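Interim report to the steering committee. The following record documents the input for ABC transporter permease (383 residues).
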Amino acid sequence: MLPLTYAVRNLFRSKGRLLQTIGGSALVVLLVMAAVAINSGMKRVLSASGSPHNVILVGAGSEESIQRSEVSEAAAGIAEAAVPGITEALGVRAVSTEIHYMAPVDLADGKRVQALMRGVTPQALRVHPEVRIAEGKFPGAGEVAVGRLAWRKLGITAESLKLGSFIVLDGQKLAISGIFSAPGTVLESELWATLSDLRVLAKRDTVSCVTLRLSDPADFVEADLFAKQRLDLELSALRESDYYARLSSFFQPLRAMTWITAALIGAGAIFGGINTLYAAFASRVREMATLQAIGFGRGSLLASLVQESVLACLCGALFGSVIAIVLLDGVAVPFSIGTFTMEIGPEVAVAGIVTGFLLGLVGAIPPAIRCLKPALPVALRST
């Protein structure tokens, strides 16, 4: 077996080829890590947004979109009294009546953006315990609270949604009274106004949904039975976790596109690497034949050539990983219903290292076999 130092020394025979290999593998590893971070980030935020303890009562036939749902406001009181197993604290049951409304809002600088508004009462904090008021206070009449990442979702600066500023919805000025956080959920990209304000501004007589928080997720059957028995209310019961799982499957084609893009670029890099190594190894046929003549087997030589390629690609993977940590880690990425944060964690790092290893392995084997294929007498006479 040839020593590893032989492969390391050969790496620097052609500095141009070495830089080309490192740069190409770094680019592919960076794209693969970005694809993994995007997929896992979007999946994570949609999974965390739905609690299995929460049941959403929406209008029958509106299971795919809460915004289109129409529910009588009286349904909240009826459900609160009829559905067993609702979480209760200090004699108050966790039932929240909400309006979900997508609408254009005008900012203080005159810019108009499309924002997802949620009309709520303080009861919303009982069914969404992950929400915390980070600055200011819960919105009152004529006020709005903004999610911590709403500015990123809207494509504006954080200064545009600072405390004390205002937005204009349908000609009505709403002062920003608070900034809330709900780590890892799409709620952080929303704007919350009072239910009464949004009912007037959205010109609705009904609400979008009633959310119940159950002590035991198994009590969902009771809420589902209630929705099926009260035909007069025309309700449908959904687990909140199931609703966001459906949204996650809706974005599956988008996530697949990131994988396809990374795979296509990776395939291009492999073919480019194969061409480069064909030229590099072709000039070493005589050298390989000489090593065979002094006793090294073809298997040892094949392993040494693959080592060279894998070492170069792993160097590229290292550079790609460093670039990913510097440029991608912690970056907030907006999508249609919220914002997720890209995290370069162990899963993403392993994907990058494995990609670099495969690039070196797959790209080196065909040229190495071709280099070692000629018979020994023929190879020794080659130039």
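The first strand starts at residue 54 and ends at 59. The committee is asked to note this result when reviewing the revised timeline.
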